[in-house]
Design a protein that fits this description.
Helix content is 46%, strand content 12%. It has 12 helices and 8 strands. Helix 1 packs across helix 2, helix 3 packs parallel to helix 4 and helix 6 packs parallel to helix 7. The longest helix has 17 residues.
């Protein structure tokens, strides 16, 4: 679409509306709990999800090997079948590796690739654009760009996003920029499907044209997030706001420390295989678990 395109019609959601970035449960010895992976995928498929994203930030992708990432895709796909779509993170701070990983994941039949801005290198916008174009040229699999400057050190600027939106198989943006003003302009200029990548901004981003969420809190409150989406798209903004406010303790509580740490603790409290973390992440302390229990309780989550 041209940069002058005015966005007034409802944008299609290419991967459905509710996606959760799934944790990777580890055993005490640091190996992957494969039964746990399957159980968590089943849990997400049964709680309002349209898609599951594996091998992302919350999946502790920086500390899993390529072989483990590919096996996670296989296990999740074999568990959920055609019930929900499966996306996978394939981004890295080296373009050549990202291209290779995108091809490997595409061969496994994933429904989409989540590609993050190259991190740590702090490339200029020209480098970021070239990176995404190289990955898109290497595969026909639909790509969701992932803009999270707090982790990568550099944003994908508005004009860069608008140029990349014209690439055929770049079909969506996961927005964790924390700047709804900028995102508003991208949606208006491109009509690109945008997914909120920051749970506490889910409703604000819907209000400026986002199509859905790539959530962390979907592990614990998937059904409620689905209800928020259903209410919003049915035109009941007051109900959507009510759910948003009910879930504020969960949104805040899950990120008092790194999201994967507390999500794993929450899943364990719910009787699900959250498992352990891998260094440099560390498991939640007793004090953190006590605070999380209270946050979840205030947000209406039923715990064991």
């Amino acid at each position: 679409m041209s940069s002058s395109h005015k966005q007034t019609t409802q944008i299609e959601a290419p991967f459905g509306r509710l996606i959760t970035a799934m944790v990777t449960p580890f055993l005490k010895d640091g190996s992957i709990d494969w039964d746990g992976v399957a159980k968590l995928a089943e849990h997400l498929a049964n709680t309002g999800h349209d898609a599951i994203a594996v091998n992302g930030t919350t999946g502790e992708a920086p500390t899993t090997k390529t072989s483990e990432k590919l096996e996670i895709i296989r296990v999740v796909k074999s568990t959920v079948g055609d019930r929900v779509k499966v996306l996978t993170g394939a981004g890295d701070n080296e373009t050549a590796y990202t291209v290779d990983q995108a091809k490997r994941c595409a061969e496994l039949g994933v429904d989409g690739l989540l590609i993050v801005t190259p991190y740590y290198n702090k490339p200029p916008q020209e480098g970021i654009e070239a990176h995404f174009r190289a990955v898109a040229a290497a595969t026909d699999t639909p790509i969701m760009m992932y803009d999270i400057p707090g982790r990568t050190g550099v944003p994908i600027e508005e004009d860069t996003l608008c140029r990349l939106a014209e690439v055929k198989n770049i079909v969506a943006l996961k927005d964790a920029k924390g700047n709804p003003a900028s995102t508003s302009w991208v949606i208006k200029r491109t009509g690109l499907p945008v997914y909120s990548g920051d749970d506490i901004l889910n409703l604000p981003l819907l209000s400026v044209g986002a199509v859905g969420f790539v959530s962390v809190c979907g592990h614990t409150v998937g059904n409620q997030l689905k209800a928020m989406l259903d209410a919003w798209f049915a035109g009941d903004s007051l109900r959507a706001l009510e759910i948003h406010q009910e879930l504020l303790p969960v949104f805040t509580g899950t990120f008092r420390t790194q999201g994967a740490i507390l999500t794993k603790a929450a899943l364990t409290m719910m009787g699900l295989p959250g498992g352990y973390t891998r260094l440099p992440l560390v498991d939640a302390t007793e004090a953190q678990i006590a605070q999380l229990r209270e946050d979840l309780r205030q947000g209406g989550v039923v715990l064991n």
